[in-house]
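Batch manifest line 395
LIGAND: flavin mononucleotide
JOB: complex structure
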Amino acid sequence: MFIDKTIVVGISGGIAAYKAAELVSRFKKLHAKVRVCMTKASCEFISPLTLQSLSQAPVASDMFATPSKWEIEHISLAKAADIMVIAPAPANIIGKLANGIADDIVTATVIATKAKVLIAPAMNINMYENKAVTQNIEKLKNMGYIIVEPAIGRLACGTYGKGRLADLDDIIEAVYENLLYEKDLAGKRVLITAGPTREKIDAVRFITNHSSGKMGYSLAREAKRRGAEVVLVSGKVSLAQIKGIETIYVDSAEQMYQQVMNHASNSDIIVKAAAVGDFKVKNVFSGKAKKDKIKNLELEKNPDILFELGKNKNYVLIGFCMETEDLELYASQKLKEKNPDFIIANDLTMDGAGFATDTNIVKILHQSGEIEDLPIMSKDDLAKEILNRAKILLK
Ligand SMILES: Cc1cc2nc3c(=O)[nH]c(=O)nc-3n(C[C@H](O)[C@H](O)[C@H](O)COP(=O)(O)O)c2cc1C
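JOB STATUS: finished
ARTIFACT:
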């Protein structure tokens, strides 16, 4: 949510200008105050009236228009902005901004603002690959502008390649990250596990659990928003992959163990939010096994990932514990035996806690013996709480 934040959207003359209408509407739905400024060329592509209606505010498109009250339009917009988003940003405005040119309302506002400026290029692939454009984009990055990379896909001119305006979700995510998040985990590497593991019985059956992966994905997203380099080792889940995060999909506990061990020594923080199966089938059937054969499955122990990670740790280690009874007792045993720095314990039987919910109710047990009781909160908010505590323990 962008409550109490003003987003100034600058629209330039490209075919993707129509998408700016949807972007403005999405910002409004997220409770932002939105002000729009448009180049003259962009008004050929989309009417200021549309943007005025969607932003519920006057649209600035003429630097020299007589103002209705005494204020210089581009200066007042520049001051009002908590963040500016130029979407779409065609080759022309990229070139102008890279060279400090301020000859229209959008470029003048950008150059007058102290707020962060996000630029979302959108153009034909040949234009995008043109040396002048690539050099101008590099120059803008070095000047501190934030570039939201264009997407690959079918372009308006009929060709295929890189140059489409980034997905609106990605632009909104970039605004979230840059407007609402301090980069307090920049330079830190965070390894997170999420979701269930699956142990094969035969060619068609497997043993798994109800983990949705939501907690681990919330942690990964939060760590990324705070500037960390994130590796997510994920079991099979129905959640969308998070852009900007290295996601490694695994099936079995053994595969998860291998991937975690490959990345552990490079990590500053490891959060084990996956629901890992304790046992696997000793002799997996090659085809589809007949019913009588799977009646008495022989199981053997899977590697205990948290235990292995707790042995010689040079990272902050956080474990999870889910129980249906004696939560504190089992969680404190796990804390002692497996040596995480702290453990997040939740009781599956409580309303609002557990696997597929969007909320959780947890206790945090620390090695010092301290036990914190956290109120019910969203998994996103819990991810914040967990990483706040992990950050304090970083060397
Ligand atoms: C139909 C049409 C579509 C255009 N689409 C784009 C585009 O997607 N990207 C781009 O860089 N330029 C595009 N242009 C060229 C820009 O409109 C042109 O460079 C213009 O000067 C940009 O002005 P502005 O930066 O003041 O908005 C297009 C032009 C036309 C006529």
